[in-house]
Amino acid sequence: MPQRSSSKTLIRLFRPQDTDSIAQLFHQTVHQINRRDYSSNQCLAWSPTDIYFRDWAKICASRYTFVAEIEGAIAGFGELEANGHIHCFYCHKDYQRCGVGSQIYRAIKEKAIELGLQRLFTEASITAKPFFQHLGFVVITEQQVVCRGENFTNYAMEKFL
Fold first, then answer.
1. Alpha carbon separation from 96 to 7, 29, 48, 100, 106 (Å, rounded)
2. What is the pLDDT of residues 61-97, one digit of tens each?
3. Could you identify which of 53, 76, 110, 119 might form a hypothetical disulfide with 68, taking C-beta atoms 3.0 to 4.6 angstroms apart as the criterion?
């Protein structure tokens, strides 16, 4: 059962040894959580079975990647780019609606303020849109994007700090 106490959650920056866990978390979240709003073909295009070949370590290290760790297990992660773009933001299926995402977001927001950013922005999935709205993000536009031959709906969203 997920931990509901925020005192047990450690938010820290990405380490190379997190790579496999983050890749697995991403893949599982897309196929088990985002599947509520997207077809199996869309989920397979979003996160194909060979996604593990993506250079997660290089990508995560090139951004401010915040990792939520609970009792040694990675419960979620979020990536902030230096321009205020929140790229990846995923919580493990067992840690949805437990406050983990909010804690990751707080770390991202603190870093954005430290960097002197005035705005955060993202492209949220149908699934993630309510989470970002709860944090105060507003929808700029609904978008249709193509990934590996599949069409997806997502939302360009922003929040001014």
1. 17, 10, 22, 7, 16
2. 889 999 999 999 999 999 999 999 999 999 999 888 8
3. 76
